[in-house]
Structure formats: structure tokens, C-alpha cells
Specification:
This protein has helices spanning 33-38, 72-77, 97-111, 159-164, 219-235, and strands spanning 5-8, 12-16, 20-25, 40-44, 48-55, 60-66, 89-92, 133-136, 140-144, 148-153, 167-170, 174-183, 186-193, 209-211, 244-245. The protein is an alpha+beta fold and 262 residues long.
Length: 262
Amino acid sequence: MDLGFKLVGSNATWTFHADHVVIEYATSLDVPRLLRRIGRRVVPNEAIADAGVGRGDGAWVLWLILRAGADPYLTAAAGQLPDDHDPHRLELDNDQADLANFYARDLRLRAGTKPLHPAPSPLFLLAADPLPLRLKCYDGEAHLDADVLRFRWNSAASPIKRALGTSVYPLSALESAEWVRPGLLSGHLAVHATGDSAGALAPEDDPRVILFGLGYGGLARSLPFAASLLVEIQRNSPDGRPAEALAPGNRARASHQSLDRP
């Protein structure tokens, strides 16, 4: 029986099984809300590229380096997460340095003979939230079902969006999504289909873009939604192509920072 070996940190507990690592996040209020919201993750060995050990804020940190394309959360985040929100970072006490190095060696062995940055995974190897999902945003609500994404606009949406009515996107027609980390008056989720004329409209008028900000679409809610959206785009892809997440700002350079909101 594979009982696993546990390594307990201040932000999470990692349990090392023969063919995977289970990460369970702590529920204390000093742990980022995103990690508490995710709750638990299973990382299969084939997703692991490397591991590292270093000093954090006065303590030791053990972190996993995953293959590009293996994790829908990291793919959706596109480098926008602060260090303490990294779901594969374990914060340890000063007296756990030897344990950190021992398990880092174990994780590197799991990566086998792969180079430090192996080829991207063609499919996601870690899970995201199951469907259906709903996300309340600044200018509407996003609804994700098994085969379709809908943006339903509210009274804060621009006249152009309201006049167009609910935006309906079959997942099989989508090829990428862009999540821009929410701020007080910024952030959005945008989707892209084959043949889109990117940049034809500003984000506040573009029916492919739903806006965050002013307390709507917070990181702990919107990133899990975006990760699940990428998983479903990949699952519904007619040609089996990997789902893409565009880097922030690649949406035809359309800036969300200039929005004038009441």
C-alpha cells in the first residue's frame, strides 16, 4: 500500500506518493485566498520538470517546477501571480532545511533524465474546477457549461455590449483566452476564436472581453474560472490542439487601464 510521506509547511502539506504528489493548502487566514480556494491539487510525476530550494522571508522554501502546459492555473496566470500565490511553493521552518533538500532530490528523480525545461506538455496534466461555473464580473456574468461560454451583460456594460445582447461562444470555436490579473479598476477575461479581428474594439466595448475591477472578478475567483475555461477549450478542440493563454497585453495592445468607470 502506498501510504505516502508528508512534508508539512506553513502554507501547505505535500504528500509524496509513488507516482504523484498531493498538495493540500492550509486554511489559516494568512494563506492567500487563492490557495485556500483551490484547496487540493494532485501533481503527477510526468508533470514535474525540476525542483528547487531557497530562502524565503527568513525561512526555507521548496518549490516544484512543472512542464510548460501541464498546469491550467499557471498557464492562465501567464506569470502574473505573486510569489506567495504560487501553488507549487512550500514554505518551511528554519529547521526543515535538510528535509527540503531531501525532497527536492526526490522530485528531481521523479523528473528522471528530462532536461531542466523539457518539451511542453501537449495536454493539461493537472485538474481545474469542474463545470458548470459562474463568475460575477464588473460589467456582466460569465457562465461556463460543458460546451459553451456565455457573457451576460449588466447595466454597467457599455451600450455597445448591451445592444449586442448575451455573447455566446461554443467552446469548439475558441482557441485561446487571456486573463489579466484584477486590480481596483483593471483586469479582464478575453476569449479568441479562429479568424478574430483582434483589436477592432476597445475592451470596454468588445463582446469577447468581460471586465473585472471594483470588487468584481477577484483573483481567487477569476483565475480558477480562467483555468477551467482553458481546460474546456482544450477538451473541445476539434483538432486536439493545446489550449493557449495569451500573455497580458497581447490582445492587440488593448489597455484596460484607461477605462473611465463611475
